[in-house]
Amino acid sequence: MSEISTKPYMLRAIYEWCTDSGYTPYLAVKVDRATTVPMEYVKNGEIVLNISFGATSGLKMDNDAIRFHARFGGVSREIFVPVNNVIAIYASENGQGMAFEAMLGMADAEPEEEQEDSAPTLSLAPAPSPAPATESAPSGTPDDDGTPPKKGGRPTLTRIK
């Protein structure tokens, strides 16, 4: 019998913690053919989605996928994200949450031992400007000359491997 992944349970737990604490839960997603998101908001193959109660309609977080409707530019869009494509869930106000390895194309495959649930270190970097309810993730990485990003603004998630 194959082992059940803890990832969807951790996603639901962090979502519940965010909402109970009054924070706005954000989902960072690696986009591929299995995801249904507005492609015009995808940057570097990733998208960051506000999954708060006020930003979504019909949110359903199953063991295999996350489904909901959200407005982008005033137009309601259906969103479908396989759990394997989620790379992080975190509170937008303070950046606290959990990061995961994206397991693209692994929906029907056996999960690799512990790799799916590994959590890389999170680093916070300020966003360049206030963000709309749903957006693509700013990089938050140092500039080419090695200087760190400017301080101030809203924290964003940067994966460090």
UniProtKB/TrEMBL annotation:
Highest taxon of the lineage: Bacteria
Chain residue ranges for the region called Disordered: 104-161
Pfam families: SspB
GO molecular function: peptidase activity
Keyword match Zinc: no
SUPFAM superfamilies noted in UniProt: SspB-like
Low complexity bias: start-end ranges: 118-141
The UniProt record lists the keyword Transmembrane helix: no
GO biological process, one term: proteolysis
Keyword line: Hydrolase, Protease
NCBIfam families per the UniProt record, alphabetical: PRK11798.2-5
Protein name stated in the entry: ClpXP protease specificity-enhancing factor
Biological source species: Pseudoduganella danionis
